[in-house]
């Protein structure tokens, strides 16, 4: 079949599956959006991204608050918090409410354990500029990340996220049927060869061999089905001829570029983003050179995609 299809630009309306439970473009498979009682939530788009007000990330979370924040994370995929004057240790403590922490083996941590520091300036320009899901080259990619901006440029430096559940829902039916059940290979080298020494990468190939993940992942908590391929780390689809694999992946990679599936966040100092790495891709916009942009990120260990 041909997969050179146009990108769909309109969100698929809610539909009723066989079990009779309404399934919309944002809500969980077996639940519906309900009000939040422990904080205020302001959506930043129809399917992804919401700003939370009334939560101090430097204070311990109660079980009820953690549960309600998790419900918001599953529904909105990325949560934003303003004016959080917290320390690296408090950022770590907040992230640990969702599980053990991990670090990216190819990005050094700063002075604080398990905190990765990104400091961009005229001496160290940014180089992100690619849609990706973090560390999918691992057998168990990260559950999520908590990113805090410490120094923000006078303009630019936004981050964008794309909802890969909405992207999957809005694929043509024949494409969804084609990719369900397929697996793809993920490798760290394509994502890091642009800015890493080749000898350094070669030395880590035995430690991080290529892995296979499903092209369509089922979210372990919400039950939503989501595209789980990304341009940074996915190299090919297992069992397809290379030309067909490349053509199909080009189509699937393009879905992250659809504005209707995205949210774009303008940072201020002490703003925090908490995103579900299982359900999203993100893109750090590199449009602020030569100004400084300093951020710290904490990543939460995940599970094996299925």
UniProtKB/TrEMBL annotation:
Source organism, top-level taxon: Bacteria
Ranges of residues in domain TauD/TfdA-like: 41-294
Record has Iron as a keyword: yes
Top EC group: oxidoreductase
GO molecular function per UniProt: taurine dioxygenase activity
Record PANTHER family: ALPHA-KETOGLUTARATE-DEPENDENT SULFONATE DIOXYGENASE
Family: Belongs to the TfdA dioxygenase family.
Record's protein name: Taurine dioxygenase
Lineage, highest ranks first: Bacteria, Bacillati, Actinomycetota, Actinomycetes, Pseudonocardiales
